[in-house]
Design goal:
Layout: H1 17-27, H2 34-40, H3 45-66, E1 89-95, E2 98-104, H4 109-119
Amino acid sequence: MDTMEHSTRKKVRQHPPALRRQVLMECEQSGASVARVAQSHGLNANMVHAWRRQERVASAAQDTNAAGPAPQFIALPLPPSTACALPDIRIELRRGATTVSMIWPGQAASECGAWLREWLR
């Protein structure tokens, strides 16, 4: 009987922070290819892309924290204004020989709709 244990856990290679900073700086150079930079250091390009994403997230979080608390919405009451008044509703209905013309205030549109439904029955 074999008493050897098989580990399913992968070894995660740790890269020195200085190497990571160097690779990220090289990737930021004008015309630099992430794949080429990764290859020159013997690294996988997908890992370098992940480092770049992590760096952007960390930088954004740092910027957010440095800016202070996040802005919040504050509702302010507005005074009533006639500039925002709804236009009047103008209706002309013909039923047989009967014609009805009306002007209804725009602010009472729901009441106008209810009246119109009743009238058209």
